[in-house]
Amino acid sequence: MHIVDAQVHIWSSGKPTNATHRQVERFTKDDLLKEMDEAGVDGAVIHPPASWDPNSNELAVEAARQHPDRLAILGNFPLDRPESRGLIDGWKKRPGMLGLRFTFLQPHQKTWPTDGTIDWLWPAAERAGLPVALLAAGFLPKLAQVAERHPGLKLIIDHLGRAVGHQGRCRVGEPARDAGPGQVPERGDQGHRGAELLERALPLPQHPRPPEADLRRLRAGTDVLGHRHHAHAVLVAAVRDHVHRGAAVAVRPRPRPRDGRGRVHLDRVDAQGMKQVLIDGYGAPEEVARCADVPDVGAPGTGEVVFDVLMFPINPADISLCRGTYRLKPPLPATPGAECVGRVAAVGAGVGHVKPGDLVINLQRENWAQRRRVKGDDVIPIPSGMDLRQAAMLRINPPTALLMLTDIVALKPGDWVIQNVANSAVGRLVIRLAAARGVRTMNVVRRDTLFAELKALGADACVVDGPDMAEAVKGQTGGAPVRLGLDAVSGRATARLSTCLGDGGVVCTYGSMSGEDPVMLRSTLANGGQTLVGFTLGRGLATRSLAQVRAMYADLGRQVLDGTLTAPVEKIYPIEDIKAALAHAQRGARTGKILVQP
After folding, report:
1. CATH 3.90.180.10 given to domain 274-397+543-597
2. Which of 194, 201, 235, 336 is a plausible cystine mate for 318, CB 3.0–4.6 Å?
3. Which of 177, 180, 181, 197 lies closest to 189, judged by CA?
4. What's the pTM value of the predicted model, to 2 decimals?
5. Residue ranges of the domains in the chain?
């Protein structure tokens, strides 16, 4: 008899995040083979644990290459990166590679199976004949739909579809009052559920998963808490999928610690509080901002939309607002947040352009919260398959780059544009959007080590900021006039930028990283006929109808979806760590944006 262990892990760094795995820094192929020999196991399938060792995939490939008679692999790759799609067809050519396995354990990955991010995977894996193994306890209904649509796709459900490490579980048994099978009533504050306690209930301290991530919204006295969160006695499936912050509360007799199998009756879906970032004064952002517990926003009224905030970025304008130097100074306490991406939870009467489950961005501010209730016209639907990290940054930077290229000067193919802070998120987008229009970009940065990176994006030329910048620019353009300058620094940097423009050129200031007002020489204004203008996205959008704004964002969303427009992300923080996130966002020489996940 040939004995094969169908799931093993090897890793070279980091301790496992799941306490049920052995808590060691390294467990190599040699360790694995030794234990296999001792136990009489002939072969094993390695599942690389990328959640705690990013290099485990390559480690597994090398192990299978050295021991092809004993080891094989179900590997993985970053599902949200466009370049990963090209790996499918040749995946089985790697040593020992049998197929794929994904766990979705990281916070930013949890919504991927249901928000469209990985919809491309199913037909691609079906076409390539690749089995796909999944830790799928949180999205089994979705997976059933995938199986129906792709009958040739081989799916492997880890752990029989059960949540790993959860010893107390319930399942929803009866439909809600006034709802048909698979439906829920429109009112989120009532409805009856029958549930069955499938295993022995545990007191809260005995739950194996760390409480800080899953129990942060638990209220004292709540017995059963739905939607992926633990409770004092039992974990229960979501009772209302589109009420993300709901709690299913059990009526007596309530399940108690150490209760065994039996029926549980869930009485209502009870709205909870939520987390929201507040500033109580103006000053250093990491000092004045705090994560607070506040009342839930409630149900939407007529013409309103309620959405769950999935992710938001920290932008320079948010930093300025916290410091009290931004053009807007709201009454205190205030909530920052110029943009976010969210998923519609509920809509009020009269709202027809979005529905529950849609991904949206919000045109209003105050988005550093877990949940928002806004006017229907303020939410803009975006493509469902967008990477949530990129979607969180869609509201401001992409349209800012686009409108500065289209609204200020009538640029033609071959015209030159110069911009400072070219390595910023807006700067990178300007490069991509200008190249698509045949407009040439001169890109000003503070260090020449960035040149290669920007040219890979499509930059035509790069220079280092300094007093001799005008001569360097002239040398690279061959003396061709530069028609438009985009300034995000202000102060003397504006004057240096203007010296690079031709007669009649326009300098557009849209930021002040220096904290100073823009400065221009009298000679460039009077003798050179140059113009200094300002740009804010609000004014740019105000000149367009709502239909035009929606169409613009839809087009930008499609360009993000196909990988044309992207922005790097350095780190994602939970909302509870907003102070650390703000401190990180103010560091120099970052490689990408700082995002926050409520």
Report:
1. yes
2. 336
3. 177
4. 0.58
5. 4-161, 166-272, 274-397+543-597, 408-534
**Residue 64 and residue 72: Cα distance in Å, rounded?**
6
Low-confidence ranges of the chain (pLDDT < 70): 19, 162-272
Give residues with Cβ within 8 angstroms of 272, minimum separation 6: 217, 219, 245, 246, 247, 296
Tell the CATH topology of 408-534.
Answer: Rossmann fold (3.40.50)
What is the distance between the alpha carbons of residues 354 and 341, in angstroms, rounded to a whole number? 14
Q: What is the C-alpha separation between 144 and 334, in angstroms, rounded?
A: 44
Identity of the residue numbered 177:
R
pLDDT digits (tens, 9 = 90+) for 388-399: 899 999 999 999
The rounded distance, in Å, linking the Cα atoms of 94 and 83 is: 17
| Structure-block tokens of residue 273 | 């509080």
* Res 187: pLDDT: 30
507-547, pLDDT tens digit by residue? 999 988 888 888 888 888 878 889 999 999 999 999 999 99
- What secondary structure, in 3-state letters, does 191-254 show? CCEEEEECCCCCCHHHCCCCHHHHCCCCCCCCCEECCCCCCCCEEECCCCCCCCCEEEEECCCC
The DSSP bridge partners found for residue 379 are 362
Contact (Cβ atoms closer than 8 angstroms) between residue 418 and residue 482: yes
Instruction: Compute the distance between CA of residue 80 and CA of residue 344 in angstroms, rounded to an integer.
Output: 22
Q: What is the set of active-site residues?
A: 326
Residues in Cβ contact with 526 at an 8 Å cutoff, skipping those fewer than 6 apart: none
Q: State CA 532 to chain mean position distance.
A: 36
pLDDT for the residue 164: 54
- Distance CA(264)–CA(168), nearest Å, equals 13
Query: What's residue 183's pLDDT?
Result: 30
Class of the domain covering 4-161: alpha beta
Query: Which helix (H) or strand (E) covers residue 134, if one does?
Result: strand 132-134
Q: DSSP assignment, residue 536?
A: -
- Whose CA is closest to 100, among 56, 61, 63, 132? 132
For residue 442, the model assigns a pLDDT of 95
pLDDT of res. 238: 29
